[in-house]
Amino acid sequence: MPCCGASDPEEGARVPSQVQRHGSHGRKPWRYVRVVVLLLHVFFTGSILLLDPTLRSQIRQGNWHMMLYGVMVLLTLLQYLYTAKSSPGYVVDMLRAGSGMHATFINTETLSKKDRPVPKDGSLNSAMSRSKIEEQNQQSATPSLLLQMMDLYPPGSNSRDLTCSSCHLIQPPRTKHCHDCDKCVLKFDHHCTWLATCIGKRNHCRFWWYLFEETTLIAWTVALYIQFLHLDMKESWLKGLTGLILLVLLILILVILLILLMLHTYLALTNQTTYEIARRRRITYLREVPSKVYPFSNGICRNLYDLCLSREKGYILEAVPPLEELEARARPYTCRDVICCRCC
């Protein structure tokens, strides 16, 4: 894979090995968190079956809604494992897959400590304008990957602002380094502690479906606990107290899940990420974006299609729209816009 500023084939050949070496650091997951989550599912669903003899008799009789509840529990657990084991889309994986036309390692020899010392904060002192990069690559047979990378950003951007201080990678737009995974994640949303993985470009749709299934399962379980307390609480105060405590815990979990589900539904409809909303003023290329403008949105229908239904191979990266286009989007809606479904 060609490397920025590398004209020697052997020099360029060393770049993939650096990617592999960095990728071998691996994640730093909470090893047992997945086991804990699975045990919590068994605990809450098993407790209601132990507390309520009516439900046990319905299962023995083959009651259809209890069978459906069992299927829901199984699907939720499978979706959890499917999401937890999925890759969010790492930049190093993109490079390994041969789709590295939009990202590259900085040549470590060109940016060695002798030539360009690394400051104490760890960021690369490698600010280069586009004209300087073009001068360095005039004699190159192939266009610089760095040039292609910078085409995704607004004019005037420099390589220092786009370089990850941990990976020494030129990051595509919407990319962020995750310190838990120790890798740069494409379209970074957040690092989910309960899944022990990042949520990003490749698994955001799976994460939404997991939230939907988990919320449905918890709501159903809450209904079963309420039914038990309504019918059997007077028979045994100990069982009733236990069921009440578990019900309160489940309601708290349900409220959190509902908030997350609504948030990520909003993010999916507008093609945004949690990180972009929380750190909008700290992301260089988003600082000048007008408020209430979704810079990467292509309309509700297209956003949902790209998130869950697109079957395009490779890694499709999004360029930062020009400021003029973003300012045009900020204009108020008119009757014509509503008729033409501008938001869709």
UniProtKB/TrEMBL annotation:
Catalytic activity: L-cysteinyl-[protein] + hexadecanoyl-CoA = S-hexadecanoyl-L-cysteinyl-[protein] + CoA
PROSITE patterns referenced in this protein's UniProt entry, alphabetically: DHHC
GO MF annotation: an example: protein-cysteine S-palmitoyltransferase activity
One of the protein's GO biological processes: protein targeting to membrane
InterPro entries per the UniProt record, alphabetical: Palmitoyltrfase_DHHC (IPR001594), PFA4/ZDH16/20/ERF2-like (IPR039859)
Its EC number(s): 2.3.1.225
Keyword Transmembrane: yes
One Gene Ontology cellular component: membrane
Keyword match Transmembrane: yes
Enzymatic class: transferase
Annotated TM spans: 32-51, 63-82, 207-229, 241-263
Keyword set, alphabetical order: Acyltransferase, Membrane, Transferase, Transmembrane, Transmembrane helix
Membrane topology: Multi-pass membrane protein
Cellular compartment(s): Membrane
Palmitoyltransferase DHHC domain: residues covered: 159-278
Renumbered residue ranges of the record's region Disordered: 1-24, 113-140
Similarity remark: Belongs to the DHHC palmitoyltransferase family.
Domains (record comment): The DHHC domain is required for palmitoyltransferase activity.
Protein name in UniProt: S-acyltransferase
